[in-house]
Structure formats: structure tokens, C-alpha cells
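I trust your eye. Have a critical look at both lines of this record:
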Amino acid sequence: MLCVMGWMTSIFAVPRALIYWKREHAKLGGFGPLGDLTIRLYRFSAGLGVIAVATGLWLGWQVWSFAPWVHVKLTLVLVLALHYIWTGVLVRRARRGEFRESDLFLRIFNEISVVAVIAILWVVVVKPF
């Protein structure tokens, strides 16, 4: 559970941090402390994400015998994992000083993860299948 919480913190915080990092980069004309913090948060949470996904797969197999609702949950977790990987691409670009995405895009990108997490929670609680 702690690994899931740590990974979710990064999924929610890093896209938002990219907005502030972009502003800091424009102000300083280069790499600043917010960039370092964002990179560290992303890297740290990568290991937490691996542990969370591995634990979820184990639970799906051993505890819930891959019930139909578990397939839906795992699909949504895959969406979150792809979101996290895409966030990593944005972080790597930002590290090079490339901020292609607008603040609006990053805000919407951030909210996609919120919707996915709400959907996951709904599937786990309701178990619709």
C-alpha cells in the first residue's frame, strides 16, 4: 500500500512540478533547484511503481484468481503506467531545457491520471464483473 501511495504521489505531482519547472527555467534561463527535485521525485517513485505493479499482479493471481474485474483494474493500471512513462519523457526533455508542452496541456495531462485513479478505485470497490 505504501508503494502505491508513493507512486501515486509522483503521478500526480510530477506533471504539476513540470509547470513550475518550466516557469523557473524561463526565469533563471537554465536549470534550477525545482528541476533537480522533479527528477529525483520521478526516479524515486519508479521503484515504488515497479513494486506496486508486481504486488498487484501477485494479488490478482493468488488472491483474486484474475476475476474479470481484476482485468479491468490491470488495464487501468497499465494506462497509469503509460502515463508515468510519458511523464518520464517530458522530464527528460525538460532536463535538456525543452519545454514543448503548454501549461494547459500539462494541467489536462495531470487530470487524466486523477480520472484513471478514480476509475481504478471504483472497479476495486464495486467489483462490477
Remarks:
- The mean pLDDT is 93.
- The chain has four helices and no strands.
- Residues 33-62 form the longest helix (30 residues).
